[in-house]
């Protein structure tokens, strides 16, 4: 319909009447472009003033908040198609081989629980089908994916157990080696102390004038048991020093061996590089020789062709001479 606009700041400056619509709040007439300037919304809502625009905005916010509260969260249900997509993604990401404490970063608890159910169900049905006899059952992509996943899970567990056993064996070897070195370091000062005690006893017996027979009679009988030896702090420190010195010597020897290995590898690399350079030079010389030989053959062919041309010219001259002479003889 045609008529004036109720907006006090109407966009139309001329007195020409244009199409107007009713305000959604008060019912006054308003141009659609004036309404759009006041309120940006659907085409079904028209306003003629700022008060009407505020009322319409409040109503829209109330409706939006009510609809957001009433709209329930959409639930997700696993379907056969979703199971196939899940198995393919798990086979690509491989969360079951992640380190301890990082599996939650790969998949959520819902996906993990459903995946565990799928694997458990497959293992039960697979074990039951293996025990059965008769015609083989159908084997589709679903069973293939689960078979691959279960095989990779078993391989991952075996690898983890192997690494754990290897670490344990290495720790046992180091512990045994350390005990061996410690016993050897403690045994050396005990031997020296025993030798010093024996030498002191023999020297005191010589000074007192005792005979060897009396010394043998006074010597206590060895019952086959090793008497406990008490070590002093100095002896323990000397044993530790000897052990550390032994380790230093071993380390130096290992460093020398590694240095020799490095020098040997460098020598091998230098010889290999020299051999490669010689081979390259030989091949380059062969190529140059072949080029020179080809150029010489081309030059020789050209000379032969030139000789052939000269021979042909000579034959032509001879034929002309013979023909002229024959003509003269006929005359």
Overview of this structure, please?
- It is a single chain.
- The termini are far apart.
- Mean pLDDT is 75; it is low at 210-229.
- The chain is flat and about 135 Å long.
- It has helices spanning 32-38, 50-70, 80-93, 103-106, 109-131, 141-208, 212-218, 233-330; strands at residues 2-3, 18-19, 21-22, 29-30.
- Helix content is 73%, strand content 2%.
- It has 8 helices and 4 strands.
- The relative contact order is 0.03.
- The chain has a two-stranded antiparallel ribbon with strand order 1-2. A two-stranded antiparallel ribbon has the order 3-4.
- Among the domains are: 2-68, no CATH class; 80-130 and 140-201, no CATH class.
- With 331 residues, it is mostly helical.
- Residues 181-227 are annotated as: Disordered.
Q: What class would the helix/strand composition place it in?
A: mainly alpha
Proportion of residues in helical segments = over 70%
How confident overall, as mean pLDDT?
75
What low-confidence regions span 5 or more consecutive residues with pLDDT below 50? 210-229
Strand content: under 5%
> Oligomeric form of this entry?
single chain
Strand arrangement, major sheet: 1-2
Please give the number of β-strands. 4
Q: Count the helices. How many?
A: 8
H and E order: EEEEHHHHHHHH
Determine Rg (CA atoms, Å).
53 Å
Instruction: Please state the overall shape, judged from the principal axes of the Cα atoms.
Output: flat
What is the first-to-last residue Cα distance? 129 Å
The largest β sheet comes out as: 2 strands, antiparallel
């Amino acid at each position: 319909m045609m008529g004036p606009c109720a907006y006090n700041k109407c966009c139309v400056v001329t007195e020409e009447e244009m199409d107007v619509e009713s305000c959604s709040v008060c019912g006054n007439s308003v141009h659609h472009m004036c309404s759009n300037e006041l309120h940006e919304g659907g085409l079904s809502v028209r306003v003629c003033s700022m008060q009407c625009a505020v009322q319409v905005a409040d109503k829209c916010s109330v409706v939006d908040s009510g609809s957001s509260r009433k709209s329930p969260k959409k639930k997700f249900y696993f379907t056969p198609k979703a199971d196939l997509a899940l198995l393919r993604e798990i086979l690509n990401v491989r969360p079951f081989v992640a380190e301890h404490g990082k599996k939650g970063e790969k998949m959520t608890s819902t996906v993990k629980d459903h995946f565990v159910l799928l694997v458990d169900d497959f293992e039960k049905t697979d074990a039951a089908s293996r025990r059965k006899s008769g015609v083989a059952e159908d084997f589709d992509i679903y069973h293939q994916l689960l078979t691959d996943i279960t095989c990779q899970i078993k391989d991952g567990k075996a690898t983890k157990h192997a690494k754990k056993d290897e670490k344990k064996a290495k720790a046992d070897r180091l512990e045994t080696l350390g005990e061996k070195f410690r016993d050897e370091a403690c045994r050396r000062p005990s031997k020296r102390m025993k030798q010093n005690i024996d030498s002191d006893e023999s020297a005191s017996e010589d000074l007192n004038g005792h005979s060897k027979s009396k010394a043998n009679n006074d010597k206590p009988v060895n019952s086959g048991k090793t008497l406990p030896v008490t070590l002093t702090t100095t002896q323990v420190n000397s044993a530790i020093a000897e052990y550390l010195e032994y380790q230093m010597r071993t380390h130096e020897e290992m460093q020398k061996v590694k240095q020799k290995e490095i020098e040997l590898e460098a020598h091998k690399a230098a010889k290999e590089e020299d051999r490669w350079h010689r081979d390259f030079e030989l091949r380059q010389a062969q190529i140059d020789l072949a080029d020179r030989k080809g150029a010489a053959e081309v030059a020789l062919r050209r000379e032969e062709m030139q000789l052939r041309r000269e021979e042909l010219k000579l034959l032509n001259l001879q034929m002309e001479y013979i023909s002229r002479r024959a003509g003269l003889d006929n005359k």
